[in-house]
Amino acid sequence: FNHLDSMLHFFTALKDSSIQSDILNEYGYFNYKLGNFNKSIHYYQHALKIDEAVSDTIRMIGRFNSIGMMYLAKGLNPLAIQYYTEALALAQTIHRPKSIAFVSNSIGLLMYEMEQYSKALAYYRTALRAWTSLQDTLRMAYAYNNKGQVYYDLQQYDNALIYFRQAKQWKEDLNEHQSLATTLHNLGSAYLALDSITQASNYLHESYTIADTYEDKHELATVSNDLAALYLHTENYPRARYYLNTAHLLIEELGSRMVLLEYWRLEAQYHEAVGQLAKALAFQKQWAALQDSLYHEERLQVVELQAAYSLQQEEQARKSAEAERET
To answer: Is the distance from CB of 65 to CB of 85 less than 8 angstroms?
Structure first.
């Protein structure tokens, strides 16, 4: 951060808006990796204002997309779709495949979070086609990882493993260690679902080690939850307690309600397993209340997203019709 501070002051003095914006973008990214989503949004929005002032469309697309990602991480899906829609409209206006791919992937992630799986796969396919044409192997790996997550949630674990393994291979070939943690985590979760305990344990622990090395708190929290689930499954309660404690500390910093929901579910299971039924009931009630709150929010968000999606499809159809008339 000190290095970025000095660079920002230097380029501010020179009035180089593009580099100022890029440095603020780096601030936003670093805060995201640290789990400081509000600070991240602040820096991305500051960068966006600079980009808008000089009509830098490509950078504006990136900033809109990044802000949308932060709101998705905070569980504020209507705000996420608002920024994603802005980003996609700009990307389509300038006909830039790379930008369309990035934003389509982000919307796919949002649709996945909303359990709109067919739409998520459609957006991932759009992103994958673009990245394949651009021969961007790393982004192809991201798309494969994301498609694998959809099949995992659909309980098609064998299909999920196909995509996760290919994503893992590409990331290893590219020495992309940091994001490898997520794919290893996904592999571990899929093997846990298939009751392949040894493989699940190996992948989850490897993911945890990488996430810890890069101080990726969100990944650490989610993989800690899954390691707790693994040890509950094998009735190793001291190890389950260790990872539940780890997850709790990280969740307090992150404030992610979805990660908290899974944590409370696991706490209820743990206390029931060790015979502490009063505590188990208390955590179950907390889980149920949050689940109910999220459900009602999600139903409202589905309606809002459906309306936004329909408008987007209509706009694309209109533009296609206009293009055909011009030709």
So the answer is: no
Nearest by Cα to 50 from 41, 42, 59? 59
The span from the CA of 229 to the CA of 298, in Å, is 25
| Tokens encoding 264 | 């409370």
- Distance (Å, whole) CA 293 – CA 291: 5
CA distances from 237 to 209, 272, 274 (A): 21, 11, 8
Give me the tens of pLDDT residue by residue for the chain, a chain 327 residues long: 445 555 555 545 446 788 888 989 998 988 887 878 889 999 999 999 999 999 999 999 999 999 999 988 887 888 898 899 999 999 999 999 999 999 999 999 899 988 899 999 999 999 999 999 999 999 999 999 999 999 999 999 999 999 999 999 999 999 998 899 999 999 999 999 999 999 999 999 999 999 999 999 999 999 999 999 999 999 999 999 999 999 999 998 887 788 999 999 999 999 999 999 999 999 999 989 988 887 666 666 555 655 655 665 666 667 666 666 665
Alpha-carbon distance 46 to 145, whole Å? 31
- Residue 180 · residue 210 · CB < 8 Å: yes
Tell me the C-alpha distance between 205 and 229, whole Å: 13
d(CA 43, CA 9): 15
Cβ count near 49 (within 10 Å): 11
Angle between helical axes of 37-53 and 17-33 (0-180°, round to 10): 160
